[in-house]
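It is worth pausing here to work through a concrete case rather than discussing structure prediction in the abstract. The textbook approach is simple: state the sequence, then state the predicted structure, then interpret. We follow exactly that order.
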Amino acid sequence: THSLSLSPFHPRMQTMSQTATVGFSCQSCGTPIRLGFAGTLQPSDLESIATETRNLHQAPALVDEDVSDGVDGVDEVNLMGYDDRITDSDDFLAKAVHRDAAAQPLASDQVSAMLFELISSHSDVDHPLCESCADVVMDRLDRSLEEVHREHSEQLQALEKLEAKAKQLDALSISDLEAELEKLTTQEAELEATLQSLEAERQTLEEKQDAVSHELRALDEKEGRQWQQFNDHHWQLIEFAEEQTSVFHQHEYARKQLHALTKSNVFNDAFHIWYDGHFGTINGLRLGRLPTVPVENDEINAAWGYTVLLLDVMARRLGFTFEHFVLKPNGSYSTIADSSDPSKDAPLYLESSLFSTSSGFDRGMVNFLQCVREIKEYIESNDPHFQLPYQVNKAEIGDSKTTVSIKTAQNTDDNWTKALKFMLTNLKWCLAWMCKQMDESPQGADHPTPSTSSAGSA
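Step two, the predicted structure:
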């Protein structure tokens, strides 16, 4: 397919007229086009076409007579749609007519190319076009034509309004115009007065707006200060709340500790009586010995020191005085004396080696067992329901099934150890009864507290 922009007088176009056949395609979609005619045109035919084209362009334009006759200065409307460019100096049809006289007749496809070039140069659409693209162009041109007709109708309506207004102006007299002018002048003065009043009101409103703006800024500053104070107070409140929570937790902890302390008993902690197999123990110290489990004298003496101190503290706490004996707690060297002669002490500790015995030690243990019996009787006098698990009869202690002696002489280690265990059990029962009485009544309400010397010896 060859380009359609070549002039028929171009050297290549002249060569094609003699040696080649021109093909065509749609200038919009590129679809190949097959022309429906064939043959040749003589130069005289081209001259006739050019003459007819010039005559058509020079024909008077078809203008609406009513429009052209009624209004001056209205341009003629080119209803034919031809462009003035058809009279340009590059009118190649004229050139085709006056070209070389020896030119040969042109083929139909060459003439078609020349015509397509002519049409394309004087139109906004490139040619040739296929049937579909031509329909699209026709639809667009129809819409343009309808738009032109619509604009033409609107212009006619406007023209009619102008003519009607002009006729009204012609009908008015000079007096009427002067009256109308005076009326308009009065309206203008009234509007001027209204405008001045509005200007004054606007100025007043602007002054009020400035005052309100100043007051608003002051309020904004005050609000900022208030929020700052609020934040400071809120932060202090948070700190106070945290401090209050901390104090509350401390109070709760102290209250729980106090509750635990009030539930606890110092005597149970200071004199813990328990057992270790066949041994009775006080604060973890064993009282007695076994053939298979020898116990050092120091441990036995320390255990006896805690036992004597416990009984002495219990008697003082209950306000009880032993009838026949006086306890003298002194650690591992505690003694017990006869109340009729306090200078004669019986030791409650072992003085010799592990296997030695002492009549004074036996006498002290028997006297101590009598003190346990006396305090047991005192408790029973205050509480008839109180009863010890083991009964005391002079140097012997036990229940209905077993009775053993607390002496070491003429006794076995097993029985001696069992007697000491029974004695500690009775002391634990007496201590439990006293602690119960302390829980039920305030300290010192019924009985005096231990003296300073007793506390110091403890």
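Step three, interpretation. The longest strand covers residues 341-347. Residues 1-21, 60-90, 448-458 have pLDDT under 50 and may be disordered.
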